Amino acid sequence: MNNKEFIADLASRTKLNSREAASMVSATVSAIIGELLEENSILVPGFGTFEVKKKLERVLVNPNTKQRMLIPPKMTVNFKPNTSLKLKVKN
Predict the structure, then answer these.
(1) For residue range 39-80, what is the model confidence (pLDDT) as tens digits?
(2) Fewer CB within 10 Å of terminal CB in the chain, N or C?
(3) String of DSSP letters for 23-88
(4) Contacts of 19 by beta carbon, 8 Å cutoff, 6+ apart
């Protein structure tokens, strides 16, 4: 499902027009991004949790040249699905 299909499905489920549904999706994504930029976790009931994690710096070895390189630390977004969502997808 791409963004256009998602917005059309959301519009039909909520009885909104496509423009309003697109605006709602955009506002939701912006709110999630804003919270993640502040390194806050976001719990979406029945769906899961988004959180920012810091990956520590590490040493990487190039297998061809055997050269060692230092990879700097970085922040990543992690998603942990809700248990009920996991069960629905599994079955």
Answers:
(1) 999 999 999 999 999 999 999 999 999 999 999 999 999 999
(2) C
(3) HHHHHHHHHHHHHHHTT--EEETTTEEEEEEEEPPEEEE-TTT--EEEEPPEEEEEEEE-HHHHHH
(4) none
Backbone angles phi, psi at 65, to 5 degrees: -100, -10
> What pTM, to 2 d.p., does this model score?
0.75
Amino acid at 29: V
Which residue, chain included where needed, has tokens 């256009």?
4
Q: How far is the C-alpha of 9 from the C-alpha of 14, rounded, in Å?
A: 9
Is pLDDT at 91 greater than 90 in this prediction?
no
State the residue for tokens 């709602």: 24
Rg of the chain on CA atoms, in Å: 19
Q: Is the dihedral of CA 36, 38, 41, 46 positive or negative?
A: negative
